[in-house]
Write a structure and sequence with these properties.
Blueprint lengths: L1 E9 L6 H11 L3 E6 L5 E7 L1 H15 L3 E10 L7 E3 L1
Length: about 90
């Protein structure tokens, strides 16, 4: 189990990115959150198996590849502080 803190840049707001991320995260049974930032980026925190998080990121790339210009990931130790995945 790991925690992934991710910043997505590009045209990731106003295209359904957060709602799709929510749907995929719940499908993959990951916990955490996703939110828009005032600078146009989207920030997300995922907790779960690293392979599962990487699978979710692949699905997001397939769905939004033309909208995502950058993705900064910081892999951290899991804290188990979330009981579900939500949009904040």
């Amino acid at each position: 189990m790991v925690r992934a803190h991710i910043f997505f840049s590009g045209s990731v707001q106003g295209v359904g990115f957060r709602y799709t991320t929510l749907s995929f995260a719940r499908q993959f049974q990951l916990t955490g959150w996703v939110k828009n930032l005032s600078d146009g980026r989207v920030e997300a925190m995922f907790e779960g198996p690293r392979e599962t998080i990487e699978g979710l990121l692949l699905k997001l790339k397939e769905q939004f590849g033309s909208f995502i210009r950058g993705q900064h990931i910081e892999w951290l130790e899991v804290r188990k502080e979330f009981d579900k995945f939500s949009i904040i």
